[in-house]
Write a structure and sequence with these properties.
This protein is of the alpha/beta class and 257 residues long. The chain has one domain: NAD(P)-binding Rossmann-like Domain (Rossmann fold), CATH 3.40.50. The protein has 10 helices and 7 strands. The protein has a 7-stranded parallel beta sheet with strand order 3-2-1-4-5-6-7, with helices on both faces. Helix 1 runs parallel beside helix 2. It binds NADP nicotinamide-adenine-dinucleotide phosphate (NAP). The site of NADP nicotinamide-adenine-dinucleotide phosphate has 31 residues, from helix 1, strand 2, strand 5 and helix 7.
């Protein structure tokens, strides 16, 4: 029986790349989306075109009842989930002084509560079967903090703590839990931060990356594919950073003066 992988927020962007990559690796893929059904269908179509198996499932993963229903539907139509990629995320540039409680809660719920809800629902089968992979997509915002994105940074830092703690809880179960911290990638969300500030992304990348380039979503997918594979069975509780060198740019500036 082929294993089932759920990729939350895979109607576009990094999630879509991960869904396609895992389909190429032989997983049956559950494509989750919140509202863009046409985009989710495009992900499913792209998977079917390469000979893979996939279906799309609507759910706002920040909501408990929707997560429960989505898992029930996945189990009915595809089977139980062995690989969970918590990718769905959202962020809006907002200084804390202008942030109302609703906007704060939305950041925490979409980025962090969703990870808890999906993980808790997926775990019993992974434990029972003695094998599982959980990959949480976080951000360099959770490592270094990004001004204007404090709520997002807090949620993404929360994912890192959750990942490390859960890996310990799952000692000896055959389940690994890791986080992938992305730098700025060429997606709707990644580019929106540059648009909002009227900064040409290429100009920013030439100053604030070591490689001079923003990330391609496929580059994140490649690392997720490795973490899911048997080759990575001894990697757990880790944060893999893929960021064009952005988080060490301060040191580079210091030593290259
Ligand atoms: N792009 C970057 O530069 C960057 C950098 C660091 C980390 N990340 C992280 O990488 C992940 C993917 O980002 P992206 O750039 O690919 O974003 P994106 O292009 O905006 O895509 C976001 C995806 O998440 C889904 N989504 C949003 N809220 C959801 C919810 N409540 N329930 C279910 N699905 C939901 C969207 O579905 P709908 O279209 O149906 O709404 C969409 O498929 C996020 O966790 C993000 O924080 C991105």
């Amino acid at each position: 029986m082929r294993k089932v992988a759920l990729v939350t927020g895979s109607s576009r962007g990094i999630g879509r790349s991960i869904a396609l990559r895992l389909a190429k690796d032989g997983f049956v893929v559950a494509v989750n989306y919140r509202k863009r059904e046409e985009e989710a269908k495009k992900t499913v179509k792209a998977i079917k075109e390469i000979g893979g198996e996939a279906e799309h499932f609507k759910a706002d993963v920040s909501k408990e009842d929707e997560v429960e229903r989505m898992f029930d539907e996945i189990e009915e139509r595809l089977g139980k989930v062995s690989v969970l990629v918590n990718n769905a995320g959202w962020g809006l540039l907002t200084p804390i002084i202008q942030m109302d409680v609703g906007l704060w809660d939305r950041h925490i719920n979409v980025n962090l509560r969703s990870v808890f809800l999906c993980t808790r629902r997926a775990l019993p089968y992974m434990i029972e079967s003695g094998w599982g992979r959980i990959i949480n997509i976080t951000s360099i915002a959770g490592l270094i903090g990004l001004g204007g994105l404090a709520a997002y940074s807090a949620a993404k830092a929360g994912i890192i703590g959750f990942t490390k703690a859960l890996a310990q809880e799952l000692k000896g179960t055959g389940i690994t839990v890791n986080a992938v911290a992305s730098g700025f990638a060429k997606t709707k969300m990644g580019l929106s931060f540059f648009e909002a500030q009227n900064i040409p992304p290429e100009e920013w990348a030439s100053k604030w990356t070591l490689t001079g380039k923003l990330l391609e979503p496929d580059e994140i997918a490649e690392v997720v594919s490795f973490l899911v594979s048997e080759k990575a069975s001894n990697i757990t509780g880790q944060v893999i950073v893929i960021d064009s060198g952005t988080t060490v740019i301060g040191s580079a500036a210091f030593f290259n003066r």
